[in-house]
Amino acid sequence: MSIMTQNSRSFLHILPRAMLILTMLTAPVLAVPVLRADTGQTIEAPALKKKGIGFVLLVSLQRS
């Protein structure tokens, strides 16, 4: 077998794995502009309930 044939076979053997890895790496990068488009869908965390402990803690620390 010639060197050219060996190189071609090794390249074709590695190609599917390389394409899979490339696809997995580029999918999130390509998904960012789609999510940033103004489609009206936003993903937000639920709002935390305010318990008011911050103000009480601030006042008590100032009096010390």
What does this structure look like?
The protein is mainly α and about 60 residues long. It has a domain at about 1-40. Helix content is about 70%, strand content about 0%. It has helices spanning about 5-35, 55-64. The longest helix has about 35 residues, at about 5-35. The N and C termini lie far apart (about 85 Å). The mean pLDDT is about 80.
* Strand runs, count: 0
User: Stretches where pLDDT falls below 50 for ≥5 residues?
Assistant: none
N to C succession of SSEs: HH
Report the major sheet: none
> What integer is the average pLDDT?
79
Structural class: mainly alpha
First-last Cα distance: 87 Å
Estimate what percentage of residues fall within beta strands: under 5%
Q: What is the overall silhouette?
A: elongated
Helix content: over 70%
Number of helices: 2
Nearest-angstrom radius of gyration?
A: 28 Å
Helices, strands, pairings?
Elements: H1 3-36, H2 53-63
Key words describing this protein structure:
64 residues, mainly alpha, 2 helices, elongated
Give the structure's gist in a few sentences.
By secondary structure, the protein is mainly alpha-helical.
